[in-house]
Amino acid sequence: MSGPKVVRVVTREELEATCQRWLLLVGESAADLLRNATRFGLASSALETQLATRRAALKALFHSEQWVDLQKDAAQAIEHFRFEGERLRSEAVAAEAAQRSRQRRTLDAARSIAASLAKAGQPVPVALTAAIEGAMTATGTDLDAMQRTVESSIATLVQGQPKTQSSGQSDLAARLNAGGPIPTFAQWLEENARPDPQAERLDGLLSELSTCATLVDITDLTARALSISAEPSADRRALLTDSLVLEAARRLRDERAIEAATAKAMQVRAELAALSSERGRACSIQLDAAITDRNVSEMRARITDGETMLDEGLRQASAVARRRAVLGGLASLGYEVREGMEAAWAKEGRIVVRRPGTDDYGVELAAPADASRMQARLVGSDQPSSPRNAMRDKDQETIWCGQFDQLRSVLADRGGHVEIERALPAGEQAVKTISLPSASPSAEAKIARPQTRALPRS
Fold first, then answer.
1. Cα–Cα distance list, 435 to 352, 362, 385, 388, 405 (Å)
2. What is the pLDDT of residue 454?
3. Which of 416, 403, 384 is nearest to 5 (CA)?
4. Contacts of 357-364 spanning 24+ positions with Cβ under 8 A
5. Cα–Cα distance, 269 to 262 (Å, whole number)
6. What would the 3-class secondary structure string for 158-202 be?
7. Taking every pair of C-alpha atoms in the chain, what is the biggest distance, in angstroms?
8. How confident is the model at residue 182 (pLDDT cuts 50, 70, 90)?
C-alpha cells in the first residue's frame, strides 16, 4: 500500500504523559485508601508496605518504558485499592453497628429486668438504673460492667421470686431456675430479646454515617437516638424511630454524594499538579475551597473545568510532539526540514517536504489542529523538470512507501509508533499536482533530530 495513507502517530512523549497521569491517579487512590484505613483504625504497616510495593512496581514499568503493561496494571491497582477501601469500610460499619446493637440490647435487657423487678415488688438496683441511663453511650469495659449488672439482676429476679406469683412470673421462674443454673446475659437475650427491625436499621444508618470519608457531624442524630431510647413508651419510641430513620437515610444519601464528589475532586487536583500553568493552579485552589466547603455543585463545576484543562493540555502538547516527531523522523531520512515548518504545519494544516535533488515530487503531510490523524501522500509538481506520467508517478509512490516504512522504524526506535488506518495501493489514485516552490539553496538548515517538548507530567 504505497499510495495515500491516513495514519495515527503515537509519540514517546504522549505515552509517557499518559502513563504519568496513571501514576498520579494510582498515587491518589493509594493515599485515599490509607486515609480511610487510618480513620477506621485499620491501618497497618502491612497495608503501607502493600501500597508502596504496588506503586514501586508501576514505577519500574514506567522506567523500563513498558507503557501498555503500566496502563493495564495501573487500572487494576486503582480497582484493587477501591475494593480494599470498600472492604475496610464494610468492616468498620459492621463493627460500629455491632457496638450500637450491643448497646441497644443492653438497654432493652436492663429496662426489661428493671420492669420485672418492680412488678415483683423487688427494689431496682442503682447500678441497673445507671445501665438504663448510660447503655447507649457506654463502650468497652463500662459496657461490660453494665452487662454484668444485668446478669446479677437476672439472678436477683429469679432468686427473689415471691411465693405468690402470677402465671407469667411462674413461667419465667420455671424457665430461669427450674433446677438449673441461672442464665447468662447472652442466654437471657437469646430467649427474651425481641429484634426491632427499624431500630436495627437506624443503627446501621448511623454506623454508615459515622464512617463516611467526609467526616460528617452526626451529633444531632445520635442525640435524637439517645432521646428516643429514653422514651418509656414503646409505641412512641417506634414512631420517633421511624422518623429518625428517614432523616438518617436522607443524610446518608447527601453524604454519599459529597463523598463521591470529593474523591473525584481530589483525583483531578492530583492530576492538575502536573500542569505548570496559572490556570491549573487556580483551578486547584478552587477545588480545595470546594472540598473544604463540602459544596457538591461547586466541586462538580471545578471538576469539569479541571478535566477540560487537562484534556486540552494533553491534546495540544501531543499535537506538537506528533508533528515534531514526524518532521524529525523525515529529517533523519534526508528530507529537507527547515525552521518554521512545524509552526506553518500547525497554522495551515498541511505542509510539503522534499528530499534534496528531487524537485518534481514531495510528500504532503496534512492534519487537524490536534494532529490526532495525519494524511501522508505523494504530490507532484505542476511544472516538473522532466515530464510526468502515470508510470513515473507510480514509481515515485513506491519509493515513498519504502521511505514511509523507514520512518515508522525511526519513530519506533524513539519510543513511538505509527498505526495505519487507511491506505491505497500505488497508482489507484492519481498523484495530486500542486505548485512546488524551488528547492531551497540552503538545505543544510534542517532539523537533524527531533526536538522534544515535555507533556504534562509530575
1. 10, 11, 13, 14, 26
2. 47
3. 403
4. 357/439, 359/384, 359/385, 359/436, 359/438, 359/439, 360/384, 360/385, 360/386, 360/388, 360/436, 361/396, 361/431, 362/436, 363/330, 363/335, 363/400, 364/432, 364/434
5. 10
6. HHCCCCCCCHHHHHHHHHHHCCCCCCCHHHHHHHHCCCCHHHHHH
7. 131
8. low
Residue showing cell 513506491: 398
Q: What is the pLDDT of residue 156?
A: 79
| Contact yes or no for 351/345 (Cβ under 8 A) | yes
pTM of the predicted model as reported, rounded to 2 decimal places: 0.73
User: Which residues neighbour 76 within 8 Å (Cβ) at sequence distance 6 or greater?
Assistant: none
- Would you say 384 and 435 are in contact if contact means Cβ atoms under 8 Å apart? no
Measured from the Cβ of residue 36, the count of other Cβ atoms closer than 10 Å reads: 20
Contacts with 52 (C-beta within 8 Å, 6 or more apart), sequence order: none
CA distance 360 to 377: 14
Q: Are 39 and 403 in contact (CB under 8 A)?
A: no
Identify whether the C-beta of residue 356 lies closer than 8 Å to the C-beta of residue 377.
no
Q: Which helix (H) or strand (E) holds 8?
A: strand 5-10
Contacts of residues 232-239 at CB distance under 8 Å and 24 or more positions apart, as own/partner, are 238/196, 238/198
Q: What are the backbone angles phi and psi of residue 413, rounded to the nearest 5°?
A: -65, -25
Distances (CA, A) of 364 to 5, 157, 326, 428, 433: 11, 100, 12, 17, 11
